Amino acid sequence: MPITKELSNLKKLEAAGFSHGQAEVLAGIIEESHIDGQQSLKEFLVNEFKAMDGKFETLEFKLKSSQSEMKADIIMKMSAIVGGMITAAVAIAKMLW
Question: Residue 31 belongs to what H/E stretch?
Answer without folding.
Answer: helix 20-96
